[in-house]
Every structure is written in structure tokens, then in C-alpha cells.
Fold these 4 entries.
Entry 1:
Amino acid sequence: MRRFFACIALIVLLAPGTFLRTDIPSRDDSQTISLVPVTLNPLQPLQKKVGALEFVVGWELRSSNDNFGGISSMLVMPGSRIVALSDGGYLFSFGVGPKNANQTPVMRDFIAPLPQNVAIDDDKATRDSESLVRDPVNGRYWVGFEDSNGIARYDPALTRREVFRVPQQMRDWPDNGGPEAMVLLGTGAFLVFAEDAEVSGDQAEDGLTEAFMFRGDPLDPATQAVKFSYRAPKGYNITDATLLPDGRLILLHRRFNVLEGVSARISIADPADIVANSVFEGEVIAAIDPPLSVDNMEAIAVTREDDDIMVWLASDDNFNSIQRSLLMKFKLLLGDVDGKINKAGGFAPSLKSLEDDYKSICYQAVISIT
């Protein structure tokens, strides 16, 4: 009888939902970000060039913080300080040391959620942040949210959300296919690219997605917008875009193929070529395929170092242990870029003809997170 009651007691204690449970692990809010160096090509460590890009330095980013990962957009500040945005509504900020140095000091790490309105704080559609721009004139930030097709504007300190709105032009974009890339042009116009909003009607074509050029703040209902179609490289989706110092766009695209894995394409296009209800596309300048270090590349930024243009790429690990959060820095090979584009019957001016006092929007950005 004693054995009978002992067995019953053991069954009760071990049964799910009863008295004996494994302790729930505590939440990890660590603010530490570590950087592990990576090469461009693990099989050929001396390889530096891929298309019109020359590899400078790269890292795999790691943190034990539960919310770290999912990088979807970023800015690079003077002094190589990174401000990255995740598709979970989090900001990551850290520095990577002196320019061109293959060092891994991380300075003033910062991991925190975007400030949001309490009423919609638990709505995933308002946390799927995919695109980030900053106006260097007034210091404000705009963030695009993919699931809701909405855009939010934040104060210069990124401590308060001023307004959140779904522009009328974007309301029919599909869930999880909304504003994947956003660019603020020097004219004050905003470009917003959908990831999966396919073009319909007479202009329907495989590979074309919708995009808009807003003539001002897209959160102002009075702002007029020009609709156009974007053609990404075949088989790829746009994931981010930003300005080069001469006003052209540099655009990032990714593809996942079961047989070939992940790959990325970087292209350059001139926003002056955007025409209402017409197709806009760029010229591919670099193809990043395995065995090169590549993952789900979703973020691109541009900085200037003396006469050199630096292109930064980062990847979204999808919070998956078999993927990586990569941060890679390349020098843009100006002669290769302009020679390739001009040969293809492309556009001017050359990056070499920049005014000395011109600075790109990303390079001017200064963030005040403390």
C-alpha cells in the first residue's frame, strides 16, 4: 500500500501543470554586445573584392539579451557608431572602434525598445519595424512598420513617438509586405518601397512591386505622392536602401533558395529617373553568394572617410540559432561603379565630382541615446 501511494504521489508531482516544475529562466536584459571577426570568404581569407565593393572588416554580432537580433535597418554615425533597428521594435547602439581597424571594442552598448503608444504597445503590427531614416535638419526619425503598413515619427532623442499613421496610399499593401525600405532624399521627398505589394492592372509583371515618392512628410495627409513600380534583380526582394553622397540610391536585396541558401545583390539607381506609373530599377554592382559570408541581408548604410565611400551591410538572423547577425564594411570602388554603369548606358554624375562640403544624410545623423 505504501508503494501504491508513493507511486501516485510521484505521478501527481511529475504531471504537467501540477506542483513540480522546472524554474522559468529569468529574462536576460543584458546590454552587452560582442563582435567576433569574420572574413569575406572563409574558404579564401585573402579575397577582398566582390563586384564594385572591397571588403574592409566584418563581424558577427552576439548578445545574450533576449531581444537582440532581427536587424532590419541601420544608421552609421561619425566614429563608426552603429544604430540598428530590429524587426521586433528594438534599437541597438554600439561603436566598433577606429576607422578601418580590425578591432572589436564595443563602446557604450545600448539595447532598448522603440518608444511606443501604450494603447498599441502589445500589437505586433506596430512592432514589426523594418525601415529607418533621419532628417539631419530637424533631427527627427521616421520608422516604417511592415505588418501594419504604417509609419511613425519620433523626436530627435528617440524617446517619444510623435505620430503613427498608415498613409492612404499604402493601406492596401499586404500584411508582412509593407514598407521594407525608406529613403529621405535631399529634396525632402520620401521614397517608400514595399517588399511584396505586387503591381496590378495593366502594368502587372512578375518581380514588380509598388513604391511611392511622397513630396514631403508621408505622415501629413496633405502630402502628395507619386506611385511607381520597382523592379528588383530577378528572384530578389528589396530589403533596404539609402543615399550615396551624390544623391543616387544604393539598394540592398536578398534571396533565399532551398538549394543555394541565402544571397544578396547591391544595386545603384538614380531617383531622378523615377516617373509616375513607370518602372524604376537599378544596376547591380555586387553579388554576394556563398561561400562568401552572407546571411539574410536587410540593412545598408553609407558613410564617408576622407575621399572614400564606405558601404555597411547587416543581416537579420530571424532570431534563429543557425543564422547570424553579420555587420560588414566595404569600400565602394568608384571607378568600377561608374565604369560599369556608364558602359550600360546609365547615368551621371560620377561620385568623384562631389562637392567637398556635401555630406550624406546617414553620415550627418547624430543620435542622442544615453
Note: The chain has three helices and 23 strands.
Entry 2:
Amino acid sequence: MGSSETVATPTSIEDRRGWFTRTLALFCLGCTAITVASGLAQVTFGAYTMGVSDAWRTVFDPGVVFNLRFWNGFLLGGDLPEMSPETVVVWTLRLPRVFVGIIAGASLAVSGAVFQAVTRNELASPFILGVSSGAGFAVLVTLVLFTGLAPFLPLIAAAGGAAAFLLVYAIAWKGGTSPVRLVLAGVVVNMVFQSLQRALFFFADDIGVVQTAIAWTTGSLTGTGWEQVRIAILPASIAIVIALAGARQLNVLLLGEQTAASLGMRVERVRFLLSGVAILAASAAIAVAGIVGFFGLVVPHIVRNVVGSDYRRLMVGCLFAGPALMVSADVGARLALDTVQMPVGVVTGLVGGPYFLYLMRKQQSMGEL
């Protein structure tokens, strides 16, 4: 009786105080500052260099921001009015790349957090569970063999990611699943789909398509524009909103299947619904940014270490931390070398790999949450 009171008291105190804590607010503000600063660096520096004040003035130009003809062209693909060279560089080349980074970063971070909850496995991520490689294979098939279907890339990527995740679940299922079996099955499925991706290169006649595909499989925002924003923004927004709304269910899933079922939750139905949401979020990002390794794995860990394990806070933190890391990594990838733009996946891998090794060394055990 005493132990149940001990558990109930902190929970009731937390409910009265609310889940949006000062730490979370400061964390979100810090991430927003990093995103804005990185975005400013993105639109300022490059082959066509502008001063910081000129870049800001162009970004917030009332003639563009409050002109519906511009937004019709940006978001709906209509004709754009005549623009100055600065406006062309900022609004059609650099700023949409920032928006794609924001969408992809938020989607991958939220997707990774959801996968870690539904599998109760802190090693889970779209990449580890084979979702990224399955979605990537579907997208590569479209880019190499069925280019006319490019407007439907998020749906095609989602289908490929869902197929890969179902295959992982089927391999791992043995009267139930375990964190270790899911990870091992994910590694196997990931390797199979990566081999299929490489095999597709032999069917591409255009060397330019092959080079683009190789860069895309590494994760790259090079060449992204408003078309990619239009492709990803709707499915990413839908997935993120549903994921945020399901934060309480994710908290219950972390208690274990038996406890969740005793509280009236239909565990398998909720798990697969939220897994579908995570697949949609990851697929929207993969369709426009390629396969960015380690991102969905590392970002939830960073946020969890700062704001705690309550998914109401964790999901909001991921929504801000994902864009901050993606946009800043992309700036580093674009500006690190004078003549060559590195894929953003190279930068996230160089950052995410050592950080994950640090987590492994720091924690006594890795695996089940």
C-alpha cells in the first residue's frame, strides 16, 4: 500500500504542475534559436554572398511575405512574379532548403521517438528497424524506373517503409516480440533492402540519375526546393499532429503490454496505428531528404536526457530539436568545403555515431526502455 502511494504522489503533483515545464520551454527556445541562426547562415553564405542585414531584409521583404501571388507559386506551383536577384537566390534556392530541413528533421525525430516507445526499445529508429531502407528502396524504384510517379513519393515511400516494418515484425514474432529480436530482424531487413537499392543502379541508363540516387541514399538536401516542400509538408504535418496527440498512449505503452491492457488499452491496435504514423513521418522525410542515418535514433536520446522520459514533453522537444540539428548539420555540410557540398547524412553520421557510442558507454544496459 505504501509503495502505491509513493508512485501516485509524484504523478498527481506532475499533473497539477502540468507537463510543459520551464526546462522544456528553455530547451525549445534554444532549439528555435539554433534553427533561426542556422537558417540565416544558410540564406546568407554561398557562391552568391550577401550581408546578414541584406539577407534578413530579403527574407522578411513585405513585397514577398504578404504577396499571395508568391505563395501561390511557392506552395501551389503557379507562376511567380518578377524578382530581384537577391530574392531569387533567397526565396527559390536557399530558403526552401531550410524549410525542407525543418520538415525532415522534425519528422525523423518524432518518428524515432514513436518507434522507441511502441517497441519499448531505445535502440529503435526508422533506420535500425529497416523502415528507412524499405522506404528508400521504394523511392529509388520510382526515381530510376517510374519517374512519372514522383508526385506520389511520400505515399510510395510509406508503402515501402510499411512493408519493411511488417517484415521485421514477422521475422521477430515468436509468440510475441522482444527488443533484441526486433533490432536483429531490423538489421537483417535493412541489409536486404540496401542490397536491392544497389542492384537498382544497374538498371539506370543515365549516369546523372545514378549520381543523384547515390547522393540521395546518403541523405542530402542539395537541390531541394519548393517542390520538395509541397511533397512533404502535408503527410509530415498529419503524422506529427497524430503523434503528438498519441503521447499519452505512448506513455502507457512504456509501462508494458500487461499493464497497458489492464488499463483498457487495445495494445496491438494502438501499437500498429502509432507505428503507421511513425512510418508516414519517416517516409515523408525520406522522400525529400533521402536516408539520413542515425538521426531518428540519436535525437530522441538527446531530448530525453534534457526534458525527461514523459512522452508529452519528449515529443514536443523532438519537434524543436529535430529541425535545429538537421538545419545546422545541412549548413555544415554545404559550407564546410569550398567546392563540394557533402550530403547531410555524412554530417549526422559523424555526429550521431560517436554520441551513440557515448550513450552505450554511459548506460549500464542498452535495449529495453
Note: The two ends are 26 Å apart (CA to CA).
Entry 3:
Amino acid sequence: MTEAPAEAVGIDVGGTKIAAVRVTADGEVAARARCATPRRTADGLVAAVAGLVARVRGERTAAVGVGLPGMVDARTGALAFAPGLEFARAPLRDLIADAVGLPVVTDNDANAAAWAEYRLGAGRGHEHLVLVTLGTGLGCGVVVAGRLLHGAHGFAAEASHLTVEPGGPLCECGRYGCWGVAAHGVAIAGLGRQAAAARPASLLGRLIGEGGSDAGEAVTEAALGGDERALEILDRVGTLTGVGLAALANLFDPAVMIVGGGPVSAGELLLAPARAEFARRLYAAGDRPPVPVRAARFANDAGAVGAALLAVDRAR
């Protein structure tokens, strides 16, 4: 009798919440749980992750993958830096492994999401791809010849600090116009709140004023309802995203570009201007094979599912 294939638990540590899933060998989510992110101490974060693993693990759970919101040392699995967490460098891979009693793999959360899309998502069948996630921050993962690009230390593909809008908003790094502040989920929400304050009687103004939805989600809802300012916001963010995507494609020559994160729920209202600007800026676009820009398949599960798949693949 053939033994059932192993499963893994995937953890996606975000700035405000931690999501956990148990993933079958074919990438299906069999169980899920979440909790708030303890940001003050490594011990608190480890305890929260261990608690989630206990809630979702099954009899065939063989490993745990953890996507972390920052720079992860590829050699040791330690967290080197994470702007959303308050503690300094910590050996999280080893601490979590001791707490859960299973092999643990740690990586950057966008790398994990890129792996999910490479293995089973919008990049399946392609050995070279770039994934960009637009969310609370901006993440990027690159797959080259079927392997994640980590760089010398594990810190590669920090696309958040590519300049996409010279003279644009101030970034925490001290420079202006970085992709991670000019064009991502928080940028959409901020522009939405500004527009709502200026025109409170508009559809966007009413949606945000009622407080029934997140400001970023309200922009998408208003745009789908024809609100002119909401459409302009998505066009602006999409265009700036196209600037960044073209820079990455010129650097890495991928077969496909994938865009994930909450704003992608706006569909073509965001992706169409991104594709148009991408095509304008891609070097020698007429002399190379087409590079499609696709929406991610896994949406908000990408980081957790990818972390689980990384754990299974590295255990083989």
C-alpha cells in the first residue's frame, strides 16, 4: 500500500496578523487559522507561530514553512531585519523548530509567494518569473532557472526601493518616490482618503465616510461603480507599477510577470495601465518574446501556501 504524501504547515507572518494553513501535497488548503502578530519580542512571535501550528497540523504534517516580512539570512534562516517588528535579529528558524518539534524552513514572505505561483499558480510551467505583491508593503520574489534568487546573503529582490516616481512621496529610507510608498495597497488607501476628504459627496467619499470597508477596498468598489477619482487612483498606481515591472524585467528577463496583493482585486482597472506602461518601458520589446503580466492565482494565501511548499520541497 502506497503511503499518503506528506503535508506541511505554511505560516505567513504579516505586520498585523499571522496566517497559517495546512497544505496537501497538491497545494490544496486543508485547514487554516490566524492570530494577531506579536511584534515586540521574538519569544512572543515564536509562541504565536507554535500555537497556530498546533491548531492546523495533521497526522501527516512533516514540516513547517514560515514566510517572514523582511530580510532572512539564507544560510541560517535567521531574521536579519524586518521593519514591521520591534525586535532585533533573531534565529527564528531554530527557535520555531524547537517549539514545534518539526523541521522548519524560513524565507522572505514574497519569496514564499513567488514559490507558490511558480509551483502551482500563475507562473506554473515557467522556469523564470518575477512576482510583485502590492499590500501593506511591497514585496518581490524572483525565480531563476527554477530556483528562488536569494543573492549572497538572502536579501535579493528588495524592489520596494526602486524609484518609480522621482520627486514622489518620502520613503522611510529617506529617499523620494520609492515603489514601496508610491504604488501599493497603502498608497491606494491614502490617495482614497485624500480624495474622499476633498469630495465627500462622491461615491468614494460616501464609501469611506460610512466606514464600512477598508479605504483601499473602497477605492476598488468606487472605481467599479464608475467614480472618476477612484479610477484615476487605480490608473496612477497601475502606471507606476508598470514602471517598476519593466525595470525588473529588464534586469531578470523573466518569462512572466505576476502581480499579487489585495489591489489586484480591481482587475483590469489596475492591470491594464500596468501592462501599458510596462510595454512602453520594456527594453527592445518588439525584439523579444512577449512577457505577459498576470494576476497572481493564490491572492492572500500565496505567502502561507508558498511557505508550506518550500518546506515540502526542501525536505525531499
Note: The radius of gyration is 20 Å.
Entry 4:
Amino acid sequence: MSLDWIYWAISWVLLLWHSAWDAVGVSENAVLGTNWSWILAIVFLVVTLRVVLFPIFVKQIKSQRAMQALQPQLKALQEKHKGDRETLQKEMMELYRKEKANPLMGCLPIFLQAPVFIGLFHVLRRLNPANGQKTLYGWTVEQFESATHARLFDVPIAAKFGSSPADLALLNANGTSVKILAGILVAIMIATTYLTSRQMILKTGWAEDPQQRMIQRLMLYGIPASLLVSGAIFPIGVVIYWVTNNLFTLGQQQWVLRKYPPPPTATTGRLPKPGESTPRRTTATGSRRSTDARNPVQPGKPAKPAGRFGRSKANGAQPEKPAVDTKALAPKPGAKPVNPKKGRPAKRQG
């Protein structure tokens, strides 16, 4: 199957954004050793893709929430049909259909972004002064020459960490500068790829299903590790795209996870077992327990009165004395005066 339509689409969006930034006055000349019109064109290629995929991303989050809510029922089906895999799969599919949950929805945004990445990789890899097909995919000769010599901090965006000396000579690039900048960008790419996966897993929790848990581990550790090797063959322009995409994903996931929070038990990484009490919630500080927890009231014993400012007597504060009602002690009108000395034996005169 030919992927030319992807290359045409990526080239069209990239050239459109480059023309837009050129129209608003972003200079073609290098500023701080950077041709910002091409760098911004790559950045806004990411923005265009993420805006188009945003509704699908929201559906992905909703599907994950539905899958988490179904975990107790799925576990019950696994216990009920243990050893009968065919019946189990049939019952699970029926449950997914009834609850409108799709376990494959979580991978859909990645599958849709993959063709864009492949297309951009192919288009930027062609940026070589020795390339004779400069007008392929809708490019003009002037646009091709401009992109070929576009730089980020004096390093061509068409160069890569593993560029050969011959390729560096054609691009008029310094090998040391290319390796330093490419190494920094690849390290950022690996770190942000790990953080995007970690952010999602920490918010949604580890899956109960062993296969889904294995996929989560692959996303968390496997893909960042693979970038350590594959990053050496990526042109710097592709690494810029990947880093921008990761940063956009971090912000987008944070917003969506706040709007569609996971179930309360998902933050523990697993669902509570039957009969298991839920974890004790902490106060706003996250570490201090309440006063009642520090001084529990034992059965049959009255609670210790708290002193002024909440301090107990053991802390040195004296308990407050009960107020005396002076009106209750005053004699009523018309009552005979009471002689407090009456009834006492008189003192004998000497």
C-alpha cells in the first residue's frame, strides 16, 4: 500500500504553516542561529494534529473509565468461566457491548498518530542538497532549499545524531554540535515519553487484567528504552516534533484527567477485594491525622476535656472552671434571712 497520500498531507500542512509564519513577519533569516519559521511550522503541525484528534482522545479517556468500572464484573466472569475461554470471551464481548466500553479505544490515538510521524520522518529525511527530486509532494525548489538549510541553534534540522561525515559535509554542519544538540533533544524526548505514560498510569491505576498490565509496562518502560536506540536515526526536525507532541500530551492529559477524574479506587493501582476496607483518607495536609484519631475514646471512659486553644491538661493548660450562676444563689424577695451561724453551739464565756 502506497503512503504517498500521507506524505502529500504532511507536506501540505507543513508548508501551509511555514507560509503563515512568513506572512505574519517571522523572518526567514536565522535569529539566534535558528530559522524560526520552519521550527514553528513543525510545532504547529503538532497542534493541528492534536486539535483534530482531541475528540478521539476524550473518547479514549471515557472508555478507560468504563473499563475500570467494569473490573469487578470482569473478575466475576473470569471466576465463573474459569477454564472455558470461549464462553468467557463471548460474555466479555457482550458486557463491553452492553456497557459501551471498547478495550481497543486506548490504543486508537497512538495508531492515528503513527502515520503522521512516519510521514514527517520521510519528508524531513529527504532534505538533502544532493536530492534531485526537490519538487516532490508539492514542494517548490525555493521551499526545499530553505528547509534544507533551516537550523536550530546553528544545527540543520535535517541532521541527526548518527549522520555520516559525508552527510554532515553536504549540510555544512559541525559533527560535534550536531551530536550535542541531538543528544539533548533525544534525552528530553525519552524523558517526556516516560512522563506521559507515567502520568496516565498514576491517575488511572494499574489494570487488573495481566495482558493490559503488560501493555502498560511496555508503554511505561519499553517505548522510552527503544527511543534510546532509534533516536539516533531521527532527524532533529522529527525529534522536535516528538518533544512538542509529548509536551502537548502532558498538558492535555492533565486537563482531561481533571475533567474526567478516575474512580476513587483507581488511585491505589488496584480495585479493593471483597470485604476489604477502603484506605483511610488523610486530611488536606496528607500526613496529619485528626485529633480524634490521636486521642480515641475508649468504651466506658469519658472523653478527656480539651483545654483552652484545644490543649489538654497534660500539655500544661488548666481546664476552665464552670461558670457560677449568681442569680440562682440570691435570696428570693420576702424570704427570711438565713443565719449561717444558727445551729452552731455558742462559745462559752471564760
Note: The longest strand covers residues 151-152.
